[in-house]
Each structure stands twice: as C-alpha cells, then as structure tokens.
Amino acid sequence: MKILVLGGTAWLGHETARAAVAAGHDVTCLARGTDIPAGAALVRADRDVDDALAPVRDTEWDAVIDVARQPGQVRRAVRDLAAVAGRFIFVSTGNVYAEQEQIGADENAARLAPLNSDSYESPDDYGAAKVAGEDAVLVGFGAGRSVIARAGLIGGPGDPSGRSTYWPWRFARPSNPGGGVLVPDAPELPVAVIDVRDLASWLVLCAETGAHGIFNAMGFPVPFPHHLEVARIATGQTRELVAVSEAWLAEHGVQEWSGPKSLPLWVTDRTWYGFNARSNARAIDAGLVLRPLGETLADALAWRLAQPADVPLAAGLTDAEERELLASLR
Questions:
Q1: DSSP alpha helices (H): ranges in the chain?
Q2: Which one of 129, 183, 196, 241 is at 20 to 30 Å from 204 when CA atoms are compared?
C-alpha cells in the first residue's frame, strides 16, 4: 500500500510510520522535521502554509494517517487529498467528549462543540479542536472512507509527557534509598494506558483492512493502585507505598495529572473519572491488540533509564521534592 503519514517525526507519528514500513508498505512522511524512520520517504512542508500539501496532492494514496491537532491543518489536508486518497485515518482524542464522568461510555456519547477557528493556543480548546478535525474528515471523506481513532492516554517508550514513565522510574530510582514512594490515596481512580506501539500498529491495520468508523482507541482501565503495583513489579522492587490523602497533597502544592511537581495520572475531580474508563470494545473488535500493562511500563522505564542522566523529568516529583514531602509526614 501507498501510505501518507502527515507527520512522522514526533512520537506517535514516527511510531506509526515505522510500523507501516515494517509491514512492508510504501510510506511517505510529510513533516517540517527530518527525523523519520528508515525506509520512509520525506517531503518537507509546513502545514500551517495553505499549499503545504501541493507536493503530494497529485499522487494516489491508499491511505492517509493524520495526527494533527490544529483544525486548519486537517481541513486543508481533507481539501487537498479527498480526490486522491482511498481513506483518511484521523487520530482524535477522548477529550472530544462533552462529559467525562460516566464509566464505560462508548463512542455514541455527546461531543463538545467544534472549534470554529483554524488553530488554538489554550489547552482548554484541545478537545473542541479535535472535534473540528473529526467533522472535517467525515464531511470530506464520508463515513465509509474515514477512521476516527479517539485515543486515550498514550504511553510507553519515548513518552514525552512522562506520565507513563514516572511511576516505574520512581520505583527503580527512589529519592530515599530504602524508603518508601509517595503516592496519592485514590483507590477508585481508573487509569488506562494504550501503548504507543499498539496504537500505531492498529492504525496501520485499519489502513490494510479498509476499516471505517469511530473508535475509542484506549487501554483497558484498571484501578490506580493496580497500576502502581504493576509499575512496582515491572522494576522488580518491593518498596513501600506511602499513600497520603488528596487534600494533604493539594495543601503541599503537589499537582495532578502531569507536569512539574506532580503525581502523574492522579486526578481528584470525580467528574473526570470516566476519561480513562471508556469502552474500547469497538476498537478491539476492529483488531486493536493491547499488550500487558507491565510490558508497557517496563519498556517505558528502559527507555527512560537510557536517557542522559541530566535530562529533567517531564512530570513527577524531583528527588528533593519527594524527600521533603516524605520528611514532612514524620
């Protein structure tokens, strides 16, 4: 197959292009950067420019795979490629849903209103921007030639957010050797991670099989304590978990979900518990295969440990921050 990957240099795009090359396809990446997988062809282009797709819009493509965040980029891609591409596979997000509270909700749940502009800057507009992208694809290619893959939390080797690497890394590299690991007391919080390699392979499979439809491309939800236990087992460590209340963490300035001085994946707002607990049955039926969580976390750790020692954490507590917080509990 001739597959055009719009991107191919960043994490998911690169892994998708690599998976397509490994499957024996003729792969072209259209991107601003140059770090594409071996075996793929590169077309340099800035998708913020109106005619960026001019070099590829006269070529027949069996499938296009797009991971764009900005609606304008998606709209222009649909405009320029609808006549020459067999199908359009768009990586969307679970953030498109209007509410995130219901556990087990499927793809029929209501969405946010689409973003009217071609670009966004505020993270609060991310979901609406992806809704606009979905709409552009469905209008331009039709439901029978489109795949909308609403990804959940993506993790594994190369995770730039640090959300899937922090916990195994913290067990493997304690801030206080011989001591415990600070964790939030959140026994009912669901967590679901889809390995970037599994998502990429499935996107290529959708191109190969001619799949069409809207799918929650997400991992299987597990309680947060189970996720922590899997992370601990993945490191071969037996360190004590020091669970503290969410109120105590907030009082001490610990952030939720990601970023500096955070405990990654932790969410206090119960109206967001459904975000990582949506039904992925439709994607599983369409061939999505998910590897064991322990494999994802072990490989994420191996990747993180292979990075230079002076690379800062993308998310989580520094050693000094965790030591200070643990000391304040005494």
A1: 11-22, 71-81, 126-141, 166-172, 196-209, 224-235, 246-251, 281-285, 293-305, 319-327
A2: 129
Q: What is the pLDDT of residue 60?
A: 98
Q: Provide the residue type at 320 as one letter.
A: A
What are the b/e assignments for 166-196, b being 16+ CB within 10 Å? bbbbbbbebbeeeebbbbbbbeebbbbbbbb
Q: What residues contact residue 253 under an 8 Å CB cut-off, 6+ apart?
A: 261
Parse the chain into domains and list their residue ranges: 2-151, 157-192+221-270+291-327
**Cβ(100)–Cβ(152) under 8 Å?**
no
pLDDT digits (tens, 9 = 90+) for 230-243: 999 999 988 899 99
One-letter amino acid at 133 equals G
Report the top-level CATH class of 2-151: alpha beta
Q: What is the mean pLDDT of residues 13-27?
A: 98
Instruction: Read off the pTM.
Output: 0.97
φ/ψ of residue 112, rounded to 5: -70, 165
- C-alpha–C-alpha distance, residues 61 and 20, integer Å: 14
